[in-house]
């Protein structure tokens, strides 16, 4: 239970962290739904009866279902607004079913616990939940769910009136769920940042294209003189063509303008359309700049690792060629750099150094204690001393044929071989002689360290080896 | 009084800092108005009689009012220049009232003290103020305020002549007030950098669109053959259409060109218009590049915190999974990283380290002295020693269930619990036994430090705790 | 043999490193061909009979030849698809010859060893090679090579049918070879990163333009009413014009849309074309943002060195002018900075510091041992001690007329002159007197260090000198 | 003479540094002209008779004059190529005069010393100069200067033939002088990097527009059917209109395409024009991306200082408000940060730390020795000791009302007041009493340091003060 509790706590932090960040950028988004960061959810905290945890897998599935409905709403809303002149039965029914789901969600929200942002505790007091919801999104949610069209039928109004259409646009308020989903996914390292970001940008672009197309069509549709409209100038009898053709034309106009291609075959013909176009183009300017800015950001981040690798290798080879180092040393340098880039991420070492001492000790203890325990030199040593020794150990990978110790070098460290194998080579009478071999679990360099003499051998790896280094204490 | 004086001083620096920066970028802007950085203004320095401080709240309100008038001028100037063929009475009167306000400001400036950029002192000597103003902006201000049109009426000229129109464009000189306002707001951390920057870019874009539209219309209006103009080719009788229609058409052309959409329904028809268009498009190329450059800059800055968080968490989890660390340690690592990102800004630690020692001591003293004073270990210790001890204290947050001290670890630090609670756990006979609890104000780790023995207990937080660490001295 | 083995190993790492990176970005690319990083390939590992090493120069030439064929295929595929209504004999034969080459490659692949990504060993077991190939790309390769058109002739089908055309588009699968080539070249420091990147971006752009042009033509060609197509509206009898004219027109339309110029002389006329255009413009938006992002990335990297140089020089000169330093010191500062930027890359020092101790010792030993050995002070000293001393030596360049030691300075280092020459200058009775000269191989500063007295002379370089510094041990 | 020699040397480095950099980026540019970096040129090295130094002010003036002529050539070359059908006398003469100047320069180059890139010495051996020039740019220079048109007149050819026109385009080779000028200016810190970069980008853009316009006109002019050309379709009798109108129309088309506005009123009408347009648009795509990339780079650099300031202030104020620090400390923190940003550039401290020890000592000695000499505490101390002491001194600015020493603080440093004034305040019986004052040249903090006691007073600045800090040695 204690582990699940920790996780739970961890989740709360992430949510909070996320909240802080979002609020800074835009006050629209709310993030009281799911924790981010890919924490393994295992919520076992007991809540009151009839109160649902926001981390409940079933509740999450329900939320994903709502997000799916929201996407449908976002598409159908402007479309109905512009193209559908009389309510078709099927659409009418589907709309109301969807409204029904959202109505259920409003009711449900009164039974969902929430995370208090100060105490990091799940609040399951029904009164507090109610007060919080009523004072925040309740009004908006109700407005975006209210079935204005059926209501209008009751009062014998004509459902296709502009007023009701505009009211039905309130359903777009539901989009906040999608934006909060994206904000959460961006923090979640289980997902690729690049694709999340791209999907978000593409969604925004598509939605902008769709909305602008629909709205522009509506303006043309309502204009008194159909021949003086952007679509009527080219297709004089556009109101008779199929819905599909009109929709594609509207989208085509919209995307031609958004990408600033501007063929000009369809263009505003009257001041009303010009005004709309002015605002749309201003918006496009911002959107394009935002897309490019994001793409640049992603490209820079993408290539930074390859860049850094290239720069390091270039620096090493420039140094080597300027100083005419022998090929032997040059190869060792390059293969060491390659190995380092492969085995270590860019920020790994830095991240570990910033952890508190106790965690670092736990890690070292877990990783190195069993190995060090079996070293003959440490047989009689007390557990406590070993425990302290282990905290100071560094692990490193060495590519094959790399020197670890040079003969006659000042002894500063003691090495333990964890994997791979090394040769002891002594330079005697101008020739390199292999004096011995160390296998996994062996220790070397201890003669120098203990007797305080220069290293008697050169130690060279023969294959990829992992080696622990204990500095002389 | 001393505090207000410090603040006053602080303001002056900011103004100066701001000046330096602006001058580098463009020599147009002047920044002798308000201090930046959101300093709480509390100007109490006595000035001579009849001399107003530039930090006087009333004078600032006056300046904001002038900025408002400037924005109106910036809009009406090109508009009158291009569209208004005969002076309408209302506009004529409004223009002259506004001119009146700016005339008052010119007179007022002779009574406003200024900040000397070398001594950082408010100069209230009327002679010096006069000399400084006369030698800098006075001539420009007078030219941009002089009522050329009323004067022309006196001499029986026709007010719609091109010469006078161009003279009235001098009023755009007033825009320097707006640009200096933006430069100041960018430095002011009370405002969101992103929105300031966006507003500035949008303002510049709108002003460019407005000016280009007006000027392009003027060229068409003046061209001998109205059918060979950009607007006349499409609307042959454009001079008879309403002012609103003509203005919207001009704006529409302007923004179509600026966003490079270029539908082509309105396009230059004669060399004069082509020439204007060439210059406008060159300008647009630069403006678009500038907009995108700024947006990229903002996006990169925006996402840098999320990025850094993601990279750190990814590095930690990669390390954990590669070394197959137990879940317990993994959770501690991740929750510690989350907490760190939440409690500390990116540059906070670095900023504090760069402060001089006396300030750092003051802060430590203010924050930790009352706590340390009550520790039983320090009961008999002299105030002076405690004072010095306090300077070396570090405060850190620990998430719940995190180990602070591991059993058998080498003792290096001594901890004081400020908030939260911790358990002492001893690993006896293969089982973890809770040996005790520490509450707020308790100290732990002291046995190890004082007796120089390995820590006898593991110390684990049970809730979010703030802990002070004193290194062994 | 051992060196070649190391290199071989090194190659493997690079391949692996490269794999990791590619997989992250897109799972399409495979990189089992050549090692990157410009390693001097000298593969001498013995493989089984009839098994070819992937690093075999002949095999690489074969691969380059295939890449060349792929480029041709990538161009001809969409072109045939759209423009060629009946199979011309020449093209038919060329296509099948190319297919033949790729068929040979499929067979060959069964005899090429591969690098195991876990053990970093070349696997030459024919069974394993077969299993691996069958389970990965085999199916795709066969599909992209199968001669559908000749097969169709066998069964008396008409080769120009749309179905077979689409099948022949499978040949584009071969493009993965090109993308894997680019991914490898980007890692290879023998090539300029900028040009590789540019070539890649231009290739992608050209291919997009070509494909879109061909596909758009096909839509027009197939549309029932040729006058209601993008090309037919302008050239009503376009089907009779020459192939060249039609291809240029298609390309022209394509690039006009891609660059968002959008003249509008050719534009979609029917919903089918509009739909295609919508997708193409969405793609263009992404591609343009990607191009700009890459260019920004390259420009930033390009200018970073000049930037850094400018900033450093500016910081130095600002400091000098603010403190009114004499010209003498100012010149020394600036020339030292210039020299440093010339002799050292940006990351060189950092790179060297990250190498393991043994490699650093090898380098120092190789570079400095012969020089130090000849110094009179170290004549009687043991080889071992010298060996350890050499590891601590720093080498630095000094521009002429720069002070290395100031008279009366605290002695901390001992210097050895490697190239150039220096003067000893003593300030006696208010005058600078040249007391001596040191030539290559001389040591100076030793009086101060050994006797622990302030330096008796100022030491000034007379020409560009390289100097070793040994800190007092 | 020695100073001028150093400078001379310094210049050479800069030239070399610049060479390295340029060669990497593009092999077109040569940089053997002037040194960069704004070195005060004072070339006094004696050269052989009749040999001119490249740093000779007169030679530089000559080069600037040639650059001016090159700009004219760059404009007139494509213009003549496209628009001038028969040689007008004035142009013909001017062209040949300009050719004459360049012919003189070719002769002159044989007498100009050059910098050897290995030895950094001016080579004034006429043979070496001749060999170097003949083997590098000589052939190109002769080709770009040869008066093909006058020659053609000799042989009775018609000067307007296409062949000779293309030959006259060789004159564009001269542009390498302009690009090398820009490369040099970018390194020169006397000029604003932003404006140099902008001018370069604008020049390239204008040249591209001009060339494309001229070339496109030539294609139309040569096309057999004038009505099927981009200009003929709109102005059927375009060959009769004035040169000015045709040139403006060509430029207008060119810039409409470059900015991707693409009105479409002028667009390619035949395959030849389409082909040209395809290449121009591909080029535009690259150029636009390059412009935006550069602008982003500049914007990021521009705003980095304001950014860094904002981030630091924000970090400080967040810390203060979270810990509810008293206003007193908060003000001290903020004003210290402001002052630091004002007095120090971003990289100043870092730059100084990278200088060698001797230069740092010289600077410290120059700045602080006179002050320290007059301190009463150091009256009897030897010059040598003071000299060493001075090297360890740090100077810092303190804003007014800032604490430098706190009462009871551990004494670690000793302070000397250079400018401003400070108060000694003792906290006695719960009240702050001013115990004394220090004026310029006084020392404080010495009681604590010498007697090793806690500081007896708080020391607070009363105005902006510069203070030297000597750490306890």
From TrEMBL, chains A, B, C, D:
SUPFAM superfamilies: cAMP-binding domain-like, Voltage-gated potassium channels
Topology term for the membrane: Multi-pass membrane protein
TM annotation in the entry: 64-84, 96-115, 194-219, 278-300
Domain Cyclic nucleotide-binding, residue spans: 377-473
Places the protein is found: Membrane
Similarity remark: Belongs to the potassium channel family. Plant (TC 1.A.1.4) subfamily.
Keyword tags: Ion channel, Ion transport, Membrane, Potassium, Potassium channel, Potassium transport, Transmembrane, Transmembrane helix, Transport, Voltage-gated channel
Protein name: Potassium channel
InterPro entries: cNMP-bd_dom, cNMP-bd_dom_sf, Ion_trans_dom, K_chnl_volt-dep_EAG/ELK/ERG, KAT/AKT, RmlC-like_jellyroll
Assembly behavior: The potassium channel is composed of a homo- or heterotetrameric complex of pore-forming subunits.
Function: Potassium channel.
Domain comment quoted from the record: The segment S4 is probably the voltage-sensor and is characterized by a series of positively charged amino acids. The pore-forming region H5 is enclosed by the transmembrane segments S5 and S6 in the Shaker-type (1P/6TM) and contains the GYGD signature motif which seems to be involved in potassium selectivity.
């Amino acid at each position: 239970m204690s582990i699940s509790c920790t996780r739970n706590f961890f989740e709360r932090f992430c949510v909070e962290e996320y909240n802080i960040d979002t609020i800074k950028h835009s006050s629209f988004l709310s993030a009281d739904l799911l924790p981010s960061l890919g924490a393994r959810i295992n919520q076992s905290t007991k809540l009151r009866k009839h109160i649902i945890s926001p981390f409940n897998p079933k509740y999450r599935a329900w939320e994903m279902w709502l997000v799916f409905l929201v996407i449908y709403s976002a598409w159908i809303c402007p479309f109905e607004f512009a193209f559908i002149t009389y309510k078709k039965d099927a659409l009418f029914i589907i709309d109301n079913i969807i409204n029904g789901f959202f109505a259920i969600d409003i009711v449900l929200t009164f039974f969902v616990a929430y995370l208090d942002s100060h105490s990091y505790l799940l609040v399951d007091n029904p009164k507090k939940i109610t007060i919080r919801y009523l004072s925040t999104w309740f009004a908006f949610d109700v407005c975006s769910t209210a079935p204005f069209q059926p209501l209008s039928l009751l009062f014998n109004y004509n459902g296709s009136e502009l007023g009701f259409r505009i009211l039905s646009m309130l359903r777009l308020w539901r989009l906040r769920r999608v934006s909060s989903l994206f904000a959460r996914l961006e923090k979640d390292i289980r997902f690729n940042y690049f694709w999340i970001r791209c999907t978000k940008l593409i969604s925004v672009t598509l939605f902008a294209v769709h909305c602008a197309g629909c709205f522009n069509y509506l303006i043309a549709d309502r204009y008194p003189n159909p021949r003086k409209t952007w679509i009527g100038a080219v297709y004089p009898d556009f109101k008779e063509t199929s819905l599909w053709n009109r929709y594609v034309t509207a989208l085509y106009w919209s995307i031609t303008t958004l990408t600033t291609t501007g063929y000009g075959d369809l263009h505003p013909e009257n001041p009303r359309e010009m005004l709309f176009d002015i605002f749309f183009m201003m918006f496009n300017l911002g959107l394009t700049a935002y897309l490019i800015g994001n793409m640049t950001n992603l490209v820079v981040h993408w290539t930074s690792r390859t860049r850094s690798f290239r720069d390091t290798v270039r620096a090493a080879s420039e140094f080597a060629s300027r100083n005419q180092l022998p090929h032997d040393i040059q190869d060792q340098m390059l293969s060491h750099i390659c190995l380092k880039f492969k085995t270590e991420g860019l920020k790994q070492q830095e991240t570990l150094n910033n952890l508190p001492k106790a965690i670092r000790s736990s890690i070292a203890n877990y990783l190195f204690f069993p190995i060090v325990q079996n070293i003959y030199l440490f047989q009689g040593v007390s557990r406590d001393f070993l425990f302290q020794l282990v905290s100071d150990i560094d692990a490193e990978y060495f590519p094959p044929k790399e020197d670890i110790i040079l003969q006659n070098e000042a002894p500063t460290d003691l090495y333990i071989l964890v994997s791979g194998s090394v040769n002891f080579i002594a330079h005697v009478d101008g020739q390199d002689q292999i004096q011995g071999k160390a296998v996994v679990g062996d220790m070397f360099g201890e003669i120098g360290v203990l007797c305080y003499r220069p290293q008697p051998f050169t130690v060279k790896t023969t294959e990829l080896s992992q080696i622990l280094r204990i500095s002389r204490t």
